[in-house]
Q: What sequence folds into this?
């Protein structure tokens, strides 16, 4: 059973990541440029003051965008190659298929993650416990975006539509909220709008864990509760609302 699951997951990684990385290596540049470009802009504008926050924000953006990229990839495979039809008719479960596709997005983002990991080690210096907490935050953001991407892909009928939704959601969750800088930089009347995005809570936890933002114990605990709740809600929506067999 475990061996079959591993083979099914590996097949998704081969199809969705390894093939593209080997045959079209230029596509890897985009995975690095998107988070790094914002990092550089914030660093230059702040004259280096917000470099550490920008590195953590780039991690959050990279992983969230990778998860949202799943929507376009699944939509392409479903509508253009009818892969989902074949998977539905096979013994492969939706969990194995989505797990493999999600892992392929991580593999696809290795250049960006490796670059950001080096920057994190050099400029942020997180201790082991801090690194573990940062990893948990990033993992939840990735899980949230994967469930959103998977659900939307089952409703999408065209790859162009998928690209539009994927880009829009990524911007709304990773560019407009205070991910690359502290929320305290936003004037108070508008600050409450930022809390509509779960990435705001992820950034607060990351910055607080690294000592870059002062949060009360209550605010820190509330941020974790919101992040966990959002992850669970989107996972439940993916399980109950995604059109897995109705394609």
A:
């Amino acid at each position: 059973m475990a061996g079959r699951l591993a083979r099914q997951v590996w097949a998704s990684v081969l199809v969705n990541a390894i093939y593209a990385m080997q045959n079209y290596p230029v596509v890897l540049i985009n995975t690095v440029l998107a988070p790094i470009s914002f990092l550089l802009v914030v660093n230059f504008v702040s004259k280096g003051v917000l470099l550490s926050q920008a590195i953590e924000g780039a991690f959050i953006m990279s992983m969230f965008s990778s998860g949202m990229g799943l929507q376009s990839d699944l939509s392409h495979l479903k509508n253009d190659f009818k892969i989902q039809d074949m998977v539905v008719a096979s013994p492969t479960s939706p969990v194995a298929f989505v797990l493999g596709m999600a892992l392929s997005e991580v593999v696809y983002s290795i250049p960006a993650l490796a670059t950001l990991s080096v920057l994190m080690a050099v400029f942020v210096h997180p201790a082991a416990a801090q690194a573990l907490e940062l990893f948990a935050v990033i993992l939840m953001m990735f899980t949230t975006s994967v469930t959103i991407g998977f659900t939307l892909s089952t409703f999408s009928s065209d790859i162009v539509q998928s690209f539009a939704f994927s880009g829009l959601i990524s911007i709304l969750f990773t560019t407009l909220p205070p991910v690359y800088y502290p929320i305290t930089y936003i004037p108070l009347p508008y600050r409450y709008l930022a809390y509509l995005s779960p990435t705001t809570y992820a950034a607060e936890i990351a910055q607080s864990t690294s000592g870059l933002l002062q949060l009360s114990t209550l605010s820190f605990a509330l941020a974790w509760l919101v992040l966990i709740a959002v992850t669970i809600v989107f996972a439940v929506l993916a399980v109950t609302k995604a059109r897995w067999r109705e394609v």
